[in-house]
Amino acid sequence: MIELDRVGKRYSTGFEALKSITLTIADGEFAVITGHSGAGKSTLLNLIAGIELATSGQVRVDGQDPAGSRSALPLLRRRIGLIFQDHKLLHDRSVFDNVRLPLDITGFAPRDGAKRVRAALDKVGLLSRERALPVSLSGGEQQRLCIARAIVHRPSLLLADEPTANLDMDYAQEIVEILRSFNQVGVTVVVSTHDLVSLRMARPRVIALSRGMLAHEADARTEDTGQKGAYRPTLRRGDDR
Amino acid sequence: MTAWLIQHLRAIALTGRQVAVAPLSYLFQVLVIGVTIALPLLLYLTAQNLERLAGQSQADARIALYLAQDASGKDADLIAARLAAHAAVAGHRFISREEAIRDLKRLHGIGDLVDALPRNPLPDAFIVRARSTRSADIEALRAEAARWPKVALAQLDSAWAARLEAGLALARALAAGLAALLAAALLAVTFNTIGLQVVNRREEIEVSRLIGATHGFIRRPFLYTGLLQGLLGGLAACGLAALCVLLVNRQLPAIGALYSADLMARGLPLADLAAVSLFSGLLGWLGAWLAVTRHLWRLNPR
């Protein structure tokens, strides 16, 4: 479970990215954090992953504060799968070695690790490219590779920052379908995105941010809108302009 | 196999891969370290060998008692009796003035010059071997003998050894100082080379941290690289020192023959070689640890 209690984030420049956010995301949920550029979506994901520290309030992931002890943070991150907008792939390593990295970190036996890596690559449709270098993959394939790396150690929480950015609709749908399949087996999925249209099929819980504040919540399964706010997300294709 | 062991094996394999990527560059780094360590090592070896030589000379220390020109055979017999009865004397040999002049002619090839002299200028002499090898005891015996009647001069042949010993103490101090300085240099060399590797692999380090790598996991391959670099550098230094000893030993017998001495330089014993390599390896490890810790701190000062 992810709990944010009056969480704020102010950068050293004085810019206030998040203002007193209180939010709970239950285990097994598929949540989408949306909002305009600069609304605080990526900052919120970074706080959950312990990449950045909140300047006020408290963040808890499975009861643990990511900003707590430095020695506990790596262990927390091993329970999280991170999918980055810029992929953060190692370009001098093969597809296989990129996916194996989280298993190396946890000290997985090489033979068992290889099975896991191939299963993850199979899941995202990249098994035939295991010897390729990331640079030879298309944008969609690189994103799928990033997902394979995020899921290979079977995390209980997947955090994805703009996973469908710069992808055409077909590729974006593929990515969403993969994320949805993990959510269906109990993995909590939290996605930050502009692209609600691609995510409609996953029928997520939508959390809208506006200027660092919680602006709106909607349930895509019912399109039941919650409180009114400055940013109203739309789930219909063509309306998101 | 435990996760801990797997991670260490993986780090060792990664170190091997790093070496295999640029073996020539690695070889030169090892050579730089080797030469750096070889300098104080050679100074230490030189001091060790000279010390051994000085020790031998001390053990062979002899006192030469030159009798007065007017000393008679009876005087010489009296001195011989005193020497034979003296507790501090291990042995003595009488060299008559006739024997001395014969040796002078024979050994130095100046027969014509000696023959031209109106009379034999050399005195009768005793070569006295002290029982003790301590320079203080030998000096006491020399001083006592110098006061005996008809003894014109009592000369200790090992006076030069005392001066050598003082010089050796200085050389040992210099070797220790140089070793400390060059250990710092080795630390700096490793710090810089590993620091460069850390910068080159900054992206990988950042990604690893984001997906749950501990600082220990990130440090490990660099520590092995530093350790291996130091160990190999230490071995290279020992190899260079052994080579120098070999080269010196090709010349020393010829020099030794001039002084009727059996001169041979000795290398370091195996235990000392192992200690030098281990120390160098530890310095490499420490340099790597400092380099990675500094960069990790820069990446995330939390």
Explain the overall architecture.
The complex is a heterodimer of chains A (241) and B (302). Chain A is built from 7 helices and 10 strands. The longest helix of chain A has 16 residues, at 169-184. Chain A folds into 2 domains: 2-79 and 155-240, Rossmann fold (3-Layer(aba) Sandwich); 90-154, no CATH class. With 241 residues, chain A is an alpha/beta fold. Chain B contains 10 helices and 4 strands. In chain B, strands 2-3-1-4 form a 4-stranded antiparallel beta sheet. The longest helix of chain B has 44 residues, at 215-258. The radius of gyration of chain B is 31 Å and the shape is elongated.
User: Cα distance, first to last residue of chain A?
Assistant: 33 Å
Structural class of chain B: alpha+beta
| Alpha plus pi helix count of chain B | 10
Task: Categorize the overall geometry of chain A.
Answer: globular
Features:
heterodimer, A: 241 residues, alpha/beta, Rossmann fold, 2 domains, seven-stranded mixed sheet, three-stranded antiparallel sheet, 7 helices, B: 302 residues, alpha+beta, four-stranded antiparallel sheet
What is the strand and helix layout of this fold?
The complex is a heterodimer of chains A (241) and B (302).
Chain A: E1 2-10, E2 16-25, E3 30-35, H1 41-49, E4 56-61, H2 72-77, E5 80-83, H3 95-106, H4 110-123, H5 139-151, E6 157-161, H6 169-184, E7 188-193, H7 196-199, E8 205-210, E9 213-219, E10 224-225
Parallel strand pairs in A: 3-7, 3-8, 5-6, 6-7
Antiparallel strand pairs in A: 1-2, 1-4, 8-9, 9-10
Chain B: H1 3-21, H2 23-59, E1 62-67, H3 73-85, E2 89-95, H4 97-108, H5 111-115, E3 125-130, H6 135-146, E4 151-156, H7 159-200, H8 202-210, H9 215-258, H10 270-299
Antiparallel strand pairs in B: 1-3, 1-4, 2-3
